[in-house]
């Protein structure tokens, strides 16, 4: 297992330390053996070593240099000459050095961000202004949501349940799915008085514990816009598997294709992943779906940043007419 030494315990070092702890807990892919800093004495209760003690550490360890200051970066780079080093901002190099694929690394980073930095957003998202984007009369989201059969519905990436009150009394059974146990636990408390809700903490790319051909609909709002393209592809395959013939999926996803090598974070437009409506259509069609509707959407000040797509799992022997393809018989 790769051993890690963090060089620098400032803001970036503390941020990276917290993320690595979470990632190691989720993936069991590395071990933090030391933190080095010239001034600080502890980080999260762990004693910090001074730079002159580097020679006592495993020379095969991965030394991650976290400071942004160029002078300090050069200091550590010279000190670590001949050792395996990487700078904090060389993000994707972590994946290769820790033997973790990049899609998994990005997925874990996105999940961690939603634990550590999203409390304020979730509080704001419960407000009428942001909820109205999805649920006010006349919105694209509300119009397409009415096309779903809610007899047995899955909400993917439910977060802390802000959308649930808008359909809880219209549904036969609800399955709330999220990658974060914290969100699942909060939803369990929030909706403890309701007996027709199930909860499922998944892995962030599939629905493997849910049964085939059982659900009448799936939807996801304000979440899949952040998902990796490869994870979306896997999800679409599983959506097709768990839906009943005739079941529908309503997905709010990114239409941001300006930066193909971007990663989740504030550098992208509202954290959008690389995706557009044509790529999503291609993936959905190859998963077996018929595309019933697609609508491009403005998000805040950016036109056509997002898309909402309505999919249907065809019934065998059914003739389907769609503006997105020829009339087909299944």
Q: What low-confidence regions span 5 or more consecutive residues with pLDDT below 50?
A: 323-330
Q: What would the average pLDDT be, to the nearest integer?
A: 89
Could you say which overall geometry the principal axes of the C-alpha atoms support? elongated
SSE order in H/E notation? EHEEEEHEHHHHHEEHEEHEHEEEE
Radius of gyration: 23 Å
Distance between the termini: 50 Å
Q: Kindly report the CATH topology of the largest domain.
A: Rossmann fold
User: Any guess at the CATH architecture of the largest domain?
Assistant: 3-Layer(aba) Sandwich
CATH class of the largest domain: Alpha Beta
Structure classification: alpha/beta
Strand content: 25-35%
> Can you give the helix content as a percent range?
25-40%
Instruction: Give the total of domains.
Output: 2
* Strand tally: 15
The side-by-side strand order for the widest beta sheet comes to: 9-8-7-10-11-13-12
Largest sheet report: 7 strands, mixed
The helix tally amounts to 10
Overview in brief:
The chain has helices spanning 11-27, 70-79, 91-97, 102-116, 119-125, 128-135, 140-145, 181-190, 229-242, 277-287, and strands at residues 2-7, 30-36, 42-43, 46-47, 62-65, 84-87, 152-156, 173-178, 197-201, 215-220, 243-254, 290-299, 302-312, 319-322, 325-329. The chain is α/β, with parallel strands linked by helices and 330 residues long.
Describe this entry's structure for a reader:
- This protein has 330 residues and is α/β, with parallel strands linked by helices.
- The protein has two domains: 2-100, Rossmann fold (3-Layer(aba) Sandwich); 124-329, Rossmann fold, CATH 3.40.50.150.
- The protein has ten helices and 15 strands.
- The protein has helices spanning 11-27, 70-79, 91-97, 102-116, 119-125, 128-135, 140-145, 181-190, 229-242, 277-287; strands at 2-7, 30-36, 42-43, 46-47, 62-65, 84-87, 152-156, 173-178, 197-201, 215-220, 243-254, 290-299, 302-312, 319-322, 325-329.
- The chain has a seven-stranded mixed beta sheet with strand order 9-8-7-10-11-13-12. The chain has a four-stranded parallel beta sheet with strand order 2-1-5-6, sandwiched between helices.
- α1 (11-27) packs across α4 (102-116) and α9 (229-242) runs parallel beside α10 (277-287).
- The termini are far apart.
- 34% of the residues are buried.
């Amino acid at each position: 297992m790769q051993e890690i030494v963090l060089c620098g315990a400032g803001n970036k070092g503390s941020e990276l330390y917290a993320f690595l702890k979470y990632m190691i807990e989720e993936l069991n892919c590395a071990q933090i053996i030391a933190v080095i800093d010239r001034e600080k004495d502890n980080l999260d209760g762990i004693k910090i070593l001074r730079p002159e003690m580097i020679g006592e550490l495993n020379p095969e360890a991965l030394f991650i240099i976290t400071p942004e200051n160029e002078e300090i970066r050069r200091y550590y780079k010279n000190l670590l000459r001949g050792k395996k080093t990487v700078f904090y901002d060389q993000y994707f190099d972590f994946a290769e050095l820790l033997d973790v694929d990049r899609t998994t690394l990005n997925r874990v980073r996105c999940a961690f961000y939603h634990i550590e930095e999203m409390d304020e957003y979730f509080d704001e998202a419960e407000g009428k202004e942001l909820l109205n984007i999805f649920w006010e009369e006349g919105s694209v989201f509300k119009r397409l949501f009415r096309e779903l059969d809610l007899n047995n519905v899955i909400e993917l990436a439910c977060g802390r349940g802000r959308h649930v009150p808008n359909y809880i009394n219209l549904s036969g059974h609800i399955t709330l799915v999220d990658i974060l146990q914290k969100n699942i636990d909060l939803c369990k408390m929030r909706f403890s008085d309701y007996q027709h809700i199930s909860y499922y903490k998944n892995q962030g790319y599939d629905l493997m514990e849910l049964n085939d051909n059982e659900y009448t609909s799936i939807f996801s709002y304000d979440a899949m816009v952040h998902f990796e393209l490869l994870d979306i592809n896997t999800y679409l395959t599983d959506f097709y598997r768990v839906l009943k013939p005739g079941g529908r999926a309503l997905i709010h996803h990114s239409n941001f294709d300006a930066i193909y090598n971007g990663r989740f974070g504030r550098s992208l437009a509202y954290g959008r992943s690389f995706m557009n409506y044509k790529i999503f259509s291609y993936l959905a069609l190859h998963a077996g779906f018929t595309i019933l509707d697609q609508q491009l959407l403005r998000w805040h000040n950016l036109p056509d940043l997002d898309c909402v797509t309505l999919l249907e799992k065809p019934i065998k022997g059914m003739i389907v007419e769609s503006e997105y393809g020829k009339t087909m018989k299944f």
